[in-house]
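Researcher: Please generate the 3D structure of the following complex. Treat every line as part of one assembly.
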Amino acid sequence: MRARLHDIAHARTGDKGDTSTLSVFPYRDEHYPDLVRELTSEAVRRHLSTHIRGEVIRYELPNVCALQFVCRRSLDGGVTTSLALDTHGKSLSSRLLSLEIDLP
Amino acid sequence: MSTHNGRTAMRIGCGAGFAGDRIPPAVDLLERGDLGVLVLECLAERTIALGQRRRLQDPGHGYDPRLRARLSALLPAAARRGVPILSNMGAANPRAAGVAARTLADELGLNDLRVAVVTGDDVLDRIDLQAPALEDGRPLAEHGPIISANAYLGADALIPALAAGADVVLTGRVADPSLFLAPLAYGLGWDLEDWPRTAAGTLVGHLLECAGQITGGYFADPGHKDVPDLADLGFPYADVGADGTATIGKPPGTGGIVSRATVREQLLYEVTDPTAYVTPDVVLDLSGVTVEEARPDTVLVRGAVGRPRPGTLKVSVGYHAGHRAEAEISYAGPNARRRAELAGEIVTARLAPTGLRLRADVTGTEECRLRVAALTSSPERADDVCFEVEALYTNGPAGGGGVRTNVTDVIGIVSTLLPRDAVTPRTEILETAHARETA
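Model: Done. Output below.
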């Protein structure tokens, strides 16, 4: 079945220079394997392709059931000189939550 | 904090997570939080370059403009309760900040309060401007006229001030977690090269440094992640044991929530490599950290692993990046988006001869707002952008209203590295009516 990420997970954005960090956590730990399977670096990059212009590296943190996406070249050259309205890209994690994934 | 060593636990609070943070929750935390020490983290990357510009205009300025408001609210309770305060509100001019704090303390009748100033982060006189920026490999000086260069000092820079019995410690650029690690290490008698403990203290600093972001701020999503009484958001503290195990909490009765979810979100906030979070004090590995809800609003964190600190210090270099123009106009009702987009096309065409790199975005649905932005080295070109958006009133699509324009000076930030021994932190104690150099 299809599920919107927003219904099973929460997320937070951080920023460092031109890099955006997206942290994703399932509300229920049993959904963590589904996130690991479905929420690949490529899926994130594709979903946010209008924002992310560099590579996306995924870290798995099973101890806290988290996925960390480190997205290079995602903040219009960097927070300090960006021309975007949301210079920090704070809204990126919320945009990510509109992604639909397959659940068993 | 006055009893050095022998402690088995210490409570450390965070009363500000950025320069614009709220003050009442910090006062409440100090009054009811039974703290051992309070940290105010107020210095973003660009803030120090902005401060440097103010300092160039007036040598008595360049520190956090809200320092007086923040300390006026906190010093009386801090003095009464014997809670030391550490803060990076010194920004580009820690000594002037110290003098301002000293003056304020004397006005409040707190003549015995010991104000310490830690300097040494300003390294503008010793960086190689031809060195490549870490971000893009281009020489630092190529980015624009350089304004400031500040090394990220570590916890070791703050220990002499604490050892001198300072009640208020003001610094400029210090790595955010180091502001927390220093009083923990000093209070709990840790050696800063005891990597497991330095890692644990750094983790506490990382979790607390954004204040309300771990107690339910930057978190609420109604119907999905509800936060009780967010309007009265409380600020956090950590009870840190001698072994570095930490319990995160907030004062009883405040709004917000401390949960596994809020702590997990902050654990990874701004972390670009969870196995190697580099500070001046340690290379922190977060991959083994566990987060457990012990009771409501009480979360246990442990499992930080540390590797030896790096031999270099990161230096944040501020430069003039030009002038940013931003101009907006609204359209509403049927076909609003198409009219807003047309307005953007018109402005883009009219400004084409200037060669400016423009960005035009339309937001909204029922009411649409066009925003045009440009970054230019010329203040006149920046004004041209604002002019053309305002001109849409009578020279653009139907029903355009609510024009707002502004031009801001932009400070860019790039980074480089300096060997640790090229940076010499200094501590000065400012006593009533005279100053004494101690280290």
